Amino acid sequence: MKKGFLHIIILLLLIWSALIKAQQRFPRPDFESGYVYPEYQFLSPRNPAWEYIDVMVLLGALCIITFFALYKRSRQGLIWTSVFSLAYFGFFRKGCICAVGSVQNISLALFNDGYTLPLSTLLFFLLPLLFTLVYGRVFCAGVCPFGAIQELIGIQSVNLPRKIETILSTVPYLYLGLAVLYAATDSQFIICKYDPFVGIFRLNATAAMIIFGILLLITGVFINRPYCRFLCPYGVLLNWFSRFSYKHLSITPTNCINCRLCEDSCPSNAILPSNINTKKENKGLSRRRFFIYLVLIPVFLVTGCVLFHSLSRTLSYVNKTVRLAKEIRMETELNIPAISQQAIIFKESGKTIKELYEGEEYIVKRFKKASGWLGSFFGISLGIALLSLSARRERQEYKPHKGKCYSCGRCFEYCPVPNEKNNNQ
Amino acid sequence: MKKGSNKYQNRRDFLKKAGKWIIALPLGYLAFSLVKKTSAIHYVWQIDPLKCNQCGQCETHCVLTPSAVKCVHAYEMCGYCDICSGYLRQGVKNINTGAENQLCPTGAITRKFIEEPFFEYTIDEELCNGCAKCVKGCSDFGNGSLYIQIIHELCENCNECSIARDCPSDAIKRVPAASPYILKEEFITGDK
Which residue blocks in A223-340 are alpha helix, DSSP H? Predict the structure, then answer.
């Protein structure tokens, strides 16, 4: 059995080497009839200038939406910008490249030397973050095609219970962490692979992805922005940056009168109520809780690190080399035939099993290191989230939660305070 | 909130400011290291025909249906054979253009008589589905003049090519958009 296998490998090797060296098995014909070789017309790719047109459109859309959200305070304007973004970035540009997916290019470029990052991708990653740092999540409001399509579809929003929302909103952290891990180890771009809307934009994708996208859209009619809130990995970064934003959309154009009219207007639970009239907690108690949570952060960090380090082997199976090595190992040790396309090509290629295992070991080693970091990141995020829950801020007005607010402007019309600048009401 | 004459109104303000700097500095460094790795060159995906193993996944793994991968023909490498292993199924009885004799599942290859004993084979890209069956036949027994390329007018240039993700021979790579095709005849004959 083993000998036969060896023979086959040698034979395949011979064929392969023959293929490489003697491609020209048959001589070039000498035509007597004056035959001319046909000229093959290769269709050229889209003009690279388009990439920069996209960047300019992104910049323009960000400026316009900032104007509508922060200065004009017009939900109508936000909606029309959404329609434009959906048409341009979604259906015209077919959703690629988008800022959400660019996270992976960034991480691939940071941790791998072989990859050069295209300038337009870097700009697609940075511009929304910069705008968020100054004006809050205006990008989400209606420039991101995913946000736009969900914004336009979210007509009958129901508020989710806080508990469910809090639990679900940890998913983006996991998604972001895994996406960065898999991109950094040059395994896969999972955000692109499991992108629910790009299939709809292209009107061409596998049935599973189209169904996922449509289900998400149907959910989006009743639950506001399900992708943005409970999946979007880029949203995690925007959330952090927005918390430090210099200016942010406000519910009231001038001063809040604490009328509570806007309280239930936000479909993503992002309005922080004023708490001047609520009873204060015992100071000693809250301080003690704060310190307990503070001590818990390193505990979470170590736990996360150890947990994910031990999971690294499982996580690494997303990498195709690791998968192939597993298959080949199963074949050599347990005699389970390796029949996948990858395995067949590997056997034909003439690479030794030792080389494959070395490659696998290198990747697994990287995965181990990266998983440790990933676990620490999850631990710290969880710890900080808990800590921020225990911190009490005094608010004398109704304010949007800077991290969670998508600047969609639904709360504007609930506020009875007249807008002095525009004198609309 | 109490207002003091101090520059930092209170402890929280001070912590906030310090925190901002602590976060901003590494971020600045990160952005800088990213900019160092950036280039203005525009990249597109392409198949390296010398690495390609004609496994047939290009037909099924592209996000588009039919795939943006099509067969192309390097005429200058072709032997113009009568019995073409890229055109005819193996072991056919009659050598003619009958559909049952053709290797191509969509009948995208047309055979044209040039002169005795040479025949020209042309690919109809409208019909080609990128399955690479003809490429396999041509590479295994012929000159290897048929090969597959990603046709850039069709390609969506996804952020990550979903064929590349599963390509068993790592034949799909990013190439500069200025030279978006990897022409086989350039490697073999040294033309151009």
Answer: 226-230, 233-243, 283-315, 320-334
What are residue B88's DSSP bridge partners?
B102
Q: Does A92 lie at the interface with B, CB-CB under 8 angstroms?
A: no
Give every CB contact of residue A125 below 8 A, 6+ residues apart in sequence: A99, A102, A103, A105, A106
CB contact under 8 A, A394 and B1: yes
> Could you tell me which residues come within 8 angstroms of residue A38 by beta carbon, excluding any fewer than 6 positions away?
B75, B120, B122
Residues with Cβ within 8 Å of A309's Cβ and at least 6 positions away in sequence, in order, are A368, A371, A372, A375
Q: Which residue of B has its CA nearest to A110?
A: B34
pTM: 0.86
Chain segment B39-74, per-residue pLDDT in tens: 888 889 999 998 898 888 999 989 888 899 999 998
Alpha-carbon distance of B11 to B16, in angstroms, equals: 9
Inform me whether the C-beta atom of residue A244 falls under 8 Å from chain B C-beta atoms. Answer: yes
ipTM given for this complex:
0.82
Q: How far is it, in rounded angstroms, from Cα B172 to Cα B53?
A: 11
Q: Distance between alpha carbon A56 and the CA centroid of its chain, in Å?
A: 22
* Spatial separation of the C-alpha atoms in residues A64 and A67, rounded to whole Å: 5
Q: What's the rounded Cα separation, in Å, for the pair B26 and B32?
A: 10
User: A386 CB near a chain B CB, below 8 Å?
Assistant: no
Q: What is the pLDDT of residues A2-48, one digit of tens each?
A: 556 656 665 555 555 545 544 568 888 888 888 888 887 788 887 77
How many residues are recorded in chain A? Answer: 425
Among A274, A279, A280, residue whose Cα is nearest residue A399:
A274
